[in-house]
Design brief:
alpha/beta, Rossmann fold, six-stranded parallel sheet, three-stranded mixed sheet
């Protein structure tokens, strides 16, 4: 069972589950309120999943500063409710968390055992959600990830593509470093983990892990790669100039971590899952977007008659 089926990772999970032979179902907020104990219990009792993947979250980092109660309901109460009921129904839970649980002041990649220290509401609520899951359901796998992008939803990659079609020059933060992570690779990792924990009695597999991109990059470097591939693919017709700026030049309500590089070694050693090749993820996303654009174009042309 997938909660958060309308998000980036949720949609990528559905793409893959449609091609699998697994019994599955996915829910967005309209059909499953993860913070509503009665709703969750009814779904678990009816479908009886062996694994629940929670891809639902409040992810508006800046808005969270203005509406902490809304963020807490999705990021704390929701995971707590899911974990409690998964434990009661004999179901493992896989949960997605974030690099924002860290202060972002490190200079070497973060491991799952490193001290946490969120600086904003979003990170604090996600961290508390982790604690609630760990307390309520021993059969859990929590995956922290960072800089998620894909062909679905709203994300940095799609923003850069839109701005490239509107402007000749872009200014992008160049003093924050992280590991971009393709949502499709997160979905692949989650399904691999679900298969392994579902087939094993080895409780050592449960726990806290990191899954990030294979090579650190700044937002500016990430943007330049996206646009270069987009130009090469013919997705954009011109390459805008991308200038690096500092975080101070682009103030936001919530503080962004200056260093969000995640060490995925433990996930690789336990589950055999490689870090996300984010360059390939960009190419996959652009191919998917171009395919969707071609379908849309054909649909429009088919509605035109002489």
């Amino acid at each position: 069972m997938v909660a958060g089926g309308n998000g980036q990772v949720g949609k990528c999970l559905i793409d893959r589950l449609k091609r699998s032979d697994l019994a599955w179902e996915a829910h967005g907020r309209a059909t499953l309120d993860i913070a509503d104990e009665r709703s969750v219990a009814e779904h678990l009792q009816r479908f009886k999943p062996s694994v629940l993947i929670n891809a639902a979250a409040y992810t508006s980092v800046d808005k969270a500063e203005m509406e902490p109660d809304v963020a807490a309901r999705a990021n704390i109460k929701g995971p707590a409710t899911l974990a409690k009921l998964c434990q009661e129904h004999g179901c493992s839970i896989l949960h997605i968390s974030t690099d924002y649980v860290f202060s972002g002041d490190a200079s070497v990649p973060y491991t799952p055992d490193d001290p946490v220290g969120p600086s904003g509401v979003y990170g604090a609520t996600k961290l508390e959600g982790e604690y609630r899951i760990q307390d309520a359901c021993p059969n859990h796998v929590i995956i922290r990830t960072a800089w998620v992008f894909s062909e679905h939803g709203n994300n940095f990659m799609k923003t850069m593509l839109r701005l490239a079609s509107e402007r000749d020059k872009l200014q992008v933060v160049d003093d924050q470093q992280g590991t971009p992570t393709y949502a499709g690779h997160i979905a692949d990792a989650l399904l691999s983990i679900a298969h392994q924990v579902g087939a094993a009695d080895d409780s050592d597999l449960f726990g806290l892990y990191h899954f990030g991109g294979n090579n650190p990059v700044t937002w500016c470097g990430f943007a330049r790669y996206i646009l270069e591939v987009a130009l090469d693919r013919g997705f954009i017709s011109k390459l805008p100039r991308v200038n690096g700026i500092t975080t101070a030049d682009f103030p936001t309500p919530a503080r962004r971590p200056s260093y969000s590089v995640l060490d995925s070694t433990l996930l690789k050693s336990r589950f055999g899952i490689d870090p996300s090749n984010w360059q390939a993820g960009v190419q996959n996303s652009l191919d998917a977007l171009m395919g969707a654009k071609a379908v849309h174009s054909n649909e429009n042309s088919s509605q035109v008659t002489a």
